[in-house]
């Protein structure tokens, strides 16, 4: 069986480890051959492929990004898009099945194509850790560590000037990165999309920390909305799927904190630095296991399924289950962290 692998959507640490795990298990144990589609679904619709052998995936597990490239291409758009054209491209190049590595948008496209008759399995990918069908996704652990390291540095400069520092991290719909990195860095306030918080409450936490002689650290997820806002802060237009490009909420709340408390406040947006660099050891292992398991379910013909982590075990779930709802931060987890605020 000849399998085409793609990485689609935002990149994250661990993608190359998935590719390596799948190719090694598939070629050595499951009798499979592999090619890679360049730049996600764009490579699928344009039949832009490269060979994936044991030789050319050597040593890639520790590399960040993806050797295949990625994009936010919609496979149903354009003159070469749609299931019929994709199926014809696959047949022309002798590709029997697709392994799609990506997040919610990638897996939603994979489900539609599977429903149309294509043979596809999935591997979940998102630094936000917001897919409900898996306990953790690779890339999340690395993103949290990068954010924590950055906050440790922000705290030292904040303490030197007795400033309040606001660190904005990724998190469009959920606050897992903000919650974990904020707790790890000892933040005095953590602001996440799941929790509407007033500016007055933020300032109360900041003032309390400042009055104790601390330089306050506020962590905010990009999708956070104060209780005075109805939509996330966005001033960067829309992406290829029509979603607002978020970012900048930290720069918006920093002057509010300063004007109300009188404490000099600075904001830093970590942005794409959270996706860059080498994956952590945890993410390398998880990604490798997911890649190996994806090779296995292809051998089983489990089309329309994706691999997932439940506890410490790799399991299989359907695309529909994976796309049912987002995994948000539960109230008890936020309450646990809030005991440390102020």
Morphology call: elongated
Overall pLDDT level: 94
Domain count, please report it. Answer: 2
Outline the biggest β-sheet: 7 strands, mixed
Uncertain spans: none
SS strand fraction: 15-25%
Q: How many helix segments?
A: 11
- Numbering strands along the chain, what is their spatial order in the largest sheet? 3-2-1-4-5-10-11
Helicity, as a percent range: 25-40%
Q: Any idea of the CATH topology of the largest domain?
A: Rossmann fold
Q: What's the CATH class of the largest domain, please?
A: Alpha Beta
State the end-to-end distance.
58 Å
What's the total number of strands?
Answer: 11
Give the topology string: H per helix, E per strand: EHEHEHEHEHEHEHEHEHEEHH
| Estimated radius of gyration | 21 Å
CATH architecture of the largest domain: 3-Layer(aba) Sandwich
Content-based structural category: alpha/beta
Summarize the SSE layout with pairings.
Layout: E1 2-7, H1 15-28, E2 33-37, H2 41-46, E3 49-52, H3 83-92, E4 97-102, H4 104-115, E5 120-124, H5 140-161, E6 164-169, H6 176-185, E7 189-191, H7 199-211, E8 217-221, H8 249-261, E9 265-269, H9 281-299, E10 305-310, E11 313-318, H10 319-322, H11 331-338
Helix pairs in contact: 1-9, 5-6, 7-8
